[in-house]
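quick one: zinc ion bound model?
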Amino acid sequence: MAFVAGPAVTAEWNCTRCGVTNRRLVAAGDRETMDRCVHCGLRHRVRQDERPVRWHAEAA
Ligand SMILES: [Zn+2]
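yep, here:
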């Protein structure tokens, strides 16, 4: 996990392949990040949704 300086929020997202819930710390104000599933390793583009914690993920 990358180190985030300053205010940060936790982005929660579900893997589109295995369904595992992943969490990533992102800088406050960021609306998009790249992450890999901790379970199957599939890379995803994760975007902030209307809900603050649960983010929208798509395979990338
Ligand atoms: Zn997965």
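The mean pLDDT is 92.
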